[in-house]
Every structure is written in structure tokens, then in C-alpha cells.
Amino acid sequence: MPFGRRSGWREVGRDVFVRNYTTFDENVGLVLGDGAALLVDTRSSHVQGAEVLRHVREVTPLRPTIVVNTHGHFDHCYGNAVMLPCEIWGHEACALELRTNGEERRRDVLASVPAAMAREIEAVEIVPPDHEVRDHRTIRVGGRPVELRHLGRGHTDGDLVIHVPDAHVLFAGDLVEEGSPPSFGDAFPLDWPATATHVAALASGPIVPGHGKVVDRAYAERQAAELAAVAAQARAAHAQGIPEERAASLLALPPAFATDAIRRAYAQLDGAI
User: Fold this and answer.
1) Closest CA to 39 of 70, 73, 13
2) Taking the CA of residue 7 as centre, how many other CA atoms within 13 Å lie in the half-sphere pointing to its CB?
């Protein structure tokens, strides 16, 4: 079946697929092994998660027995509940955040999304990962090795990348962004450049970002350099005592992104996070 033409799935490596959804321009991954399937991220609600499961059947009759959350933001993990029973993997900080601050985060999301989506999110059962990764873990998908790696703080403190070495495919979550600037809402701007550099170094083929088009190592390297420039400018502005609003205006980012980047970088430099 030529998936790239007859369905919304694109095969980016042998038996490794990505599907992009127009809601948030978000990507979901699917890795097939011998009699087993792994799903990368579950979208924003139980309704959207159920849609993903229907779409999986376009590729395989297998129901995913393993889910990996790239991080704990709602648009990547609020569909977890409909995937059960299965293993749900995530970084330990992602699991902790969803367990301890899940309802507070839900309230924040409800205030920022359209009414129709808010009604869905109100009904979501927040299910944190029940299999946790600290630094690195290799799991098997029907005998096929898949590496789960935490390469450092960046978009959040709990980002995982999913590496399928035999297909040379890397799912980077929101550590890599395409089609929009990196989002700094609860990021670690001073750490992100090094983490992004590690992401690029690990890649030997397609990189699937959390949102947007599939990219490559050169793209990830350019974005790492851009993140390094943001961090350097934030450090310099903070050292000079430049107020946050003024410092944000000096960044080559849209205003809302720049404001978040400086706010979080200054908080790091002040020891507040």
C-alpha cells in the first residue's frame, strides 16, 4: 500500500510512519515490529486519540501495545487514556508533572483553546506514563530495538527522543520545531542549545518534529545555532541589567515567543527555576 498517496501516513523509514494532523500541525509516529506496534504521542484528547487508533488501522491490524509520550504537554499526551491497556512510556519528569500538576495544567489549557476543544479537554482522563525513563532505555517492539533518550532539558524538563536505529529515524518531539519558532512557555532556554545539539548529533536520517514537516540533521543543527543565539543574547542582556521587555524586543523572534524566551532565561539566571 503506497501510504503516502492513499492515506495520511508517510513512511519515513522501513515500517516507521508519521501522520500529520492539521490541529496544531502536530505529528504522531508509528513503529511496527514483528507482531507489535509502538505509537509516538496521542494528541490532545480522548476523541483525537480515538481518531489516531482508527487511522492506525489503515496501516496495520495491530493495536499499539506501547505508547511513548515525547513530553507532558496536552497536545502530545491527553489521548493516553484511550490507548489502554498498553505500556505508556515517558520521562520521569513528564510523569511527575502530569501526576502532580495535571489538573492545574488542564485549567491553563482550557483558558487558551476554542470552546469546542475545551469541552473535549474537560472530559479527558489524564493518564501519566506508567513506565519511566531517566536517561536512556532500549525497548523492544516485536523484537525491534527502539531507543528512548533524554538528552537534557529543553522545550521542557521531561523531553524524550525516540530513535529507531535500524531505520535511521528520530522522533524529536518539540525539541525540534518546524513551521513555527520554538516554544519557550515552560522551556529551559539556557539548556536547550546543548540538548538540541545532541539531538542533531544523534540523527542519521529523517527527524520527525513534534509539529510541522519532517526535517534532517542540517535543519536541526541550524535550529540549535538559533537557540544558542537566543541563550547568548539573554545572558548578555541579563548581565547588563536590561529589563525583560526591552531584552525581548532585541531577539529575532515573534514578540510572544521572545517574551517567553527572556522570561524563562532570566528566571534560570536568577535561580528561580
Assistant:
1) 70
2) 17
Query: Within a 10 A sphere around the Cβ of 70, how many other Cβ atoms?
Result: 30
Which residues fall within 8 angstroms of residue 209, CB to CB, at 6 or more apart? 27, 172, 173, 174, 176, 177, 178, 215
Whether the CB-CB separation of 76 and 42 falls below 8 Å is answered with yes
Q: Check pLDDT > 80 for residue 243.
A: yes
Tens digit of pLDDT for each residue in 83-122? 999 999 999 999 999 999 999 999 999 999 999 999 999 9
Query: Hey, how many other C-beta atoms are within 10 angstroms of the C-beta on 38?
Result: 27
CA 174 – CA 76 distance, rounded (Å): 10
Whole-number Cα distances in Å, 98 to 92, 158, 224: 10, 11, 28
Cell numbers given for 75: 497536545
Q: Is 32 exposed, middle or buried (0-12, 13-18, 19+ CB in 10 A)?
A: buried
- Whether 44 contacts 78, CB under 8 Å: yes
| Residue with the three cell numbers 501510504 | 3
Please give the Cα distance from 257 to 265 (Å, whole number): 12
What whole-number distance in Å separates Cα of residue 215 and Cα of residue 177? 9
**pTM of the shown model:** 0.96
Confidence of residue 73 (pLDDT cuts 50, 70, 90): very high
Domains for the chain: give ranges and CATH numbers: 3-216 (3.60.15.10)
